[in-house]
Amino acid sequence: MRICITGASGFLGSHIAAHLHAAGHHIIGAARRVDAARRQFPHLDWVTCDLRFDTVEDWQARLVDVDAVINCAGVLQDGLGEASEAVHVSGASALFEACERAKLRRVIHISAVGIDEPATSAYARTKRAGEEALKTRDLDWVILRPSLIVARTVYGGTAVMRMLAGLPWITPSVAPDQAFRPICAADVARAVAECLTAPQAVRGTWDIAGPEVKTVGETLTALRRWLGFGATRIWSVPLPLARLACRIGDGLGWLGLPSAMRTTALQQLDCDGCGDPRPWQAWSAVRPATLEAYLHSEPASVQDRWHARLAPLRPLARVVLGLFWLTTGVIALGPGREAALAVLNAGGFGDAVRGPLLWATSIMDIALGLTMLMGWRTRLVALGMIGGTLAYVAAISLSLPELWLDPLGPVLKVFPGMMLAALIAATEDKR
What we know:
This protein is α/β, with parallel strands linked by helices. The chain contains 17 helices and 13 strands.
């Protein structure tokens, strides 16, 4: 079959695409950023799409000779470049109408448990509206609502859970008693593959979930044990503190720095996270593994432990590095101006050069610091910091070589900063 998968470069979409490709299907991946997707998944065909803006006609052109569509696209909450109403409702509706016009029968729509009434978040409301839009179409539609999806690759909420499991001594949790039925991504992919041909699945809304109910606290404990970090204590984070953290996450989302710590995620914790997989299991041949069985089948590696431990440190490192560059630029133009001019004078820079040079270098420091703090083109900014530091070292070596031997290390101390910038640049990938 020729299958178009929206969101094929994402967390779940990539697992589904890999499973179906291995089964011999021809996969057309639809994503917003296809250049990176082509590099990572060169064995798939890729088309650029953006559900926020694509029309029915745009989708019709992409669906020529396509046999089935799997819609994995979704966003947790509105932010810079993210619009839940457009992606979940109007964009999905345009896709579904194009499928109907193309006389393409099978459409599988990935939704989520916990979106039924009385859930009132924009995420739940738009997800429900997207499902209703599909149900009005003359298609052999299937709606799948997974519970918490776990995999070796993590993104969003599962990335946060692994990060929390990697913290030393104590593991914080907003709602440690919230229950889920964890299901591994491979089992979700098998369920999707089955729904491509199963007549029992057609025009049904199915909760797909694992065989066991697990609380957040139990899941965190299992992940920590899997990582090999030993025993821990689960600390229930007070709700006011959780709300504050999520509001900060909302603000970061509007700066183009999306995270799983959002008010929507907090609201969804009040909803059903388990679903009822019994109707699906009554006809499905897929038998999902338990969380422990899945973790035992995928032993944690040193890379998994690195990720868990680096996840909370990397954003802090970015903030520290950004503040360092911003502060040095501000100090050089403010209270440290005379001292900076004196250093330039000692280095042989004349009156006509010292002022403009101080302004140019300080503005560069401030600009690099601000863009690092904002998370804008972080890898490029980090490389700019490394280049600027090397230029500083070269200038000092030529004009004031004696500073290499200064006991306070004004030259030697810049090398750890370069290594920090290199580490940030090397770990910038989001997926």
